[in-house]
Write a structure and sequence with these properties.
21 helices, Cytochrome p450, disordered N terminus, 4-stranded mixed beta sheet, 484 residues, two-stranded antiparallel sheet
C-alpha cells in the first residue's frame, strides 16, 4: 500500500515526465525540420551546430573557440556553419551588428541602458555619437595628454619605489599586473579627473577590476545565445546573481551626481565635464542616463582592453631579444621626454611596427565579431550565396593570421613584416602594407569601428616607449627560481 506522501509524488513526477516528453516531441522535430530548411544547410560545420547555438556557447565556455574555429576553417574552408543561423568566415568584410551586443547593455534602477557599443541601430548609434564625437579626435585627446603623462609618471614612481630603489633593488615585478592598474587609473584620470586608486593601493581593493573581468567573461559566453541574458543577468527574479555591468553603471552614476552637485563650474577638463557640457548643449539628446552610457564605454572599453594589448606587446618584445634590442636602440636615439610625448613617438618606425604587430598577434577580442547579411545576400568566393538575415562573423585571431595576407610566418611575432623589405619597390610595399592594414580588426572596422582607437593608441605609444626607454626589462618565467 502507498502512503499519502508517495501518492502525492507519483502524479507530480508523472506530470513532469509527460511535460518533458511533450516538449521533446515538439522541439526535436522542429530543430530537425529547421536544419533541413535552413538557408545555410549547404555550409559545412559541426553536426550539433545545425540544431542549436548551445554548441558554440559550450565551445566559448571551454575557452577553446579560437583553436576550434582554426581547425574547422582548415577542414571546411572560408565558411563554416557554427550555429543554426550562424556562419564563421575567414575573410574580412563589413556587416551590420547583431543581438550579440545586446548582452552588453547595463541595468540601472531596473532600466536597460544601451550604449554606443551595444546598440544595433545605425541611426541610434549616430545619435549617441554626434554630441561627443569630437572628444575622441586626436586634437582633443592630445589636449588631455598631460593627464596620461601624470598617471604614467605615477606608474614609474611606484615601480621604482617598490622594485628598483634602495632595499627593493632586484625584486621581481609582476609588470602585467601593474600595467593593468595603470590603465585603469589612466581611465579614471582622463574620465573623472582623478585616478581610480589601483596604483596607490597596489591592488584591486574595490574589486572593480575583478568584477569587470567576470562581466566580460559572462558577456562573451551568454552572447553566443543572447536570449539567455533576459532570463539570467537581466532577470531581477533569477535566484542566481550573474556578473553584470551594474557595478560600473552605479559607480558612473555616483560620479555624475557628485559632479553635478559640485559648486565648481570651471571650464571642462575631463571627459565627465565634457559629457555634462554636451547635455547642456544637447538637452533633447543627452540625458543623465546618456552620460552614464558614455562613461561606461570609457571605463569598460578603455581600461581592460588597452591593458590587454599593452601587456601582450611587452611580453612579445621581451620574448624576442632581437626585437627588444632594436626597439631599445631606436628609443635611445629618439631624444624622448619623460614620460614620452605622443608626438615624439608616433613617427618612430620600429616602435610603430612593434605596436601594430602586437595588436595583430594578440587582438583584444577572442570571439567572433558578428554581423547580419544585408539584402542581396553575401557572395562567397566559391560562388555560394549566404541568404539575407543570416548571421556571419569573423574572429580577429584567425583573420590576423591569414597567411595570404600576413605571410607564411603569420603565427610568429615579427614586427619587420610592417616595414619595407630590401627587395621591395616602394609601390609594392605600399600595396602590401595597405592590404595588411585593411585586414586589421584590432579596433573593428567600418562605421562601427572602436571610437576610442585614438585614445588607446596615444596611451599605448606613450606607455611602451616610456617603459622600454627608461628601464632595462627582462622576462622571468614562472619556476625560474627568481624572487616573486
Amino acid at each position: 500500500m502507498l502512503d499519502h506522501q508517495h501518492q502525492g509524488e507519483m502524479p507530480y513526477t508523472s506530470l513532469i515526465v509527460k511535460i518533458g516528453g511533450v516538449v521533446f516531441a515538439i522541439i526535436v522535430p522542429y530543430l530537425i525540420f529547421s536544419s533541413f530548411t535552413s538557408p545555410i544547410q549547404d555550409i559545412p560545420g559541426p553536426w550539433l551546430a545545425k540544431f542549436t547555438d548551445l554548441w558554440r556557447l559550450m565551445d566559448f565556455y571551454s575557452g577553446t573557440q579560437i583553436e576550434t574555429q582554426r581547425r574547422l576553417h582548415e577542414k571546411f574552408g572560408s565558411a563554416v556553419r557554427i550555429g543554426p543561423n550562424m556562419v564563421s568566415l575567414n575573410d574580412p568584410a563589413l556587416f551590420k551588428t547583431t543581438d550579440f551586443y545586446k548582452v552588453n547593455d547595463a541595468m540601472q534602477n531596473g532600466n536597460r541602458i544601451q550604449n554606443v557599443f551595444s546598440t544595433r541601430d545605425k541611426a541610434l548609434h549616430a545619435k549617441y555619437m554626434r554630441p561627443i564625437h569630437k572628444l575622441f579626435s586626436l586634437h582633443h585627446i592630445l589636449s588631455q595628454e598631460h593627464l596620461f603623462s601624470r598617471t604614467l609618471m605615477q606608474l614609474c614612481q611606484h615601480l621604482e619605489e617598490r622594485f628598483i630603489d634602495g632595499e627593493n633593488t632586484g625584486l621581481t615585478c609582476d609588470l602585467a599586473q601593474w600595467i593593468e592598474f595603470y590603465c585603469w587609473d589612466v581611465d579614471g584620470e582622463v574620465t573623472f579627473g582623478q585616478p581610480m586608486g589601483f596604483l596607490k593601493a597596489g591592488g584591486d581593493e574595490t574589486g572593480m577590476i575583478h568584477a569587470s573581468e567576470l562581466s566580460q567573461r559572462y558577456f562573451g559566453i551568454v552572447g553566443q545565445m543572447p536570449w539567455l541574458d533576459v532570463w539570467l543577468g537581466k532577470n531581477a527574479r533569477c535566484p542566481i546573481k550573474f556578473p553584470t555591468f551594474a557595478r560600473t553603471a552605479e559607480y558612473c552614476a555616483q560620479r555624475v551626481a557628485e559632479r553635478q552637485a559640485s559648486s565648481d563650474k570651471g571650464p571642462p577638463i575631463d571627459f565627465l565635464d565634457h559629457y555634462i557640457e554636451a547635455k547642456r548643449l544637447n538637452p533633447e539628446t543627452v540625458t543623465d542616463n546618456e552620460i552614464i552610457r558614455y562613461l561606461m564605454i570609457n571605463i569598460l572599453a578603455g581600461a581592460d582592453t588597452t591593458a590587454i594589448v599593452t601587456k601582450a606587446i611587452v611580453y612579445h618584445v621581451l620574448s624576442n631579444p632581437a626585437v627588444h634590442s632594436r626597439l631599445r636602440d631606436e628609443l635611445d636615439t629618439a631624444n624622448l621626454s619623460f614620460p614620452a610625448i605622443y608626438n615624439e613617438t608616433k613617427d618612430l618606425t620600429y616602435l610603430d611596427a612593434v605596436i601594430r604587430e602586437g595588436m595583430r598577434i594578440h587582438p583584444v577580442l577572442g570571439g567572433i565579431v558578428e554581423r547580419v547579411v544585408p539584402e542581396g545576400g553575401l557572395n562567397l568566393p566559391d560562388g555560394r550565396v549566404i541568404a539575407p538575415g543570416v548571421l556571419v562573423g569573423m574572429n580577429p585571431w584567425l583573420i590576423h593570421r591569414n597567411k595570404e595576407i600576413y605571410g607564411q610566418d603569420s603565427n610568429a611575432f615579427r614586427p619587420e613584416r610592417w616595414l619595407r623589405h630590401a627587395f621591395e619597390t616602394q609601390d609594392d610595399y605600399q600595396r602590401r602594407l595597405r592590404r595588411m592594414k585593411d585586414t586589421d580588426f584590432s579596433f573593428g572596422a567600418g562605421s562601427r569601428a572602436c571610437m576610442g582607437k585614438t585614445f588607446a593608441l596615444v596611451e599605448i605609444f606613450k606607455t611602451v616607449a616610456t617603459l622600454f626607454h627608461r628601464y632595462n626589462v627582462s622576462l622571468i618565467l614562472p619556476g625560474s627560481g627568481s624572487d616573486d
